[in-house]
Amino acid sequence: MAKKQQARPNGFVLFDVFYEDGTQTSNRKVPAAELGGLDGDMPARTFVEAQDREIGAVSGRPRGRIKSMSRTRKAKARPI
């Protein structure tokens, strides 16, 4: 009899990112495989910071420092 494989996280987790200069970006995608373990959502911050460095290098306009991050709340379904 075959062993049941453990569930692996797949897909993405969305985050809202707030910067020290008052700007905000919503729905930043972080691979679910990057999260979890004892660190919880802390790896998401380093992942987003790395994305910001790449974006800043390409655009020539670096992003500000991250003030806080939170998971994007699920949108409520609208009644028809």
Give a quick summary of the entry:
22% of the residues lie in helices and 28% in strands. It has 80 residues and is α+β, with helices and mostly antiparallel strands. A hairpin with a 4-residue loop joins strand 1 and strand 2 (24-31).
Question: What does it look like?
Answer:
- The protein contains one helix and three strands.
- It is of the alpha+beta class and 80 residues long.
- It has one helix at residues 42-59, and strands at 12-19, 24-31, 66-71.
- Strands 2-1-3 form a three-stranded antiparallel sheet, covered by helices on one side.
- The model has no long low-confidence stretch (mean pLDDT 83).
SSE class: alpha+beta
- Mind describing the biggest β-sheet? 3 strands, antiparallel
For the biggest β-sheet, the strand order reads 2-1-3
Distance between the first and last residues' Cα = 48 Å
Please tally the β strands and state the result. 3
Counted by DSSP, the helix tally is 1
* Low-confidence runs: none
Helix residue percentage? 10-25%
H/E topology pattern: EEHE
Average pLDDT value?
83
The proportion of residues in beta strands is 25-35%
Computed over alpha carbons, the radius of gyration is: 16 Å
From the spread of the alpha carbons, the general shape counts as extended
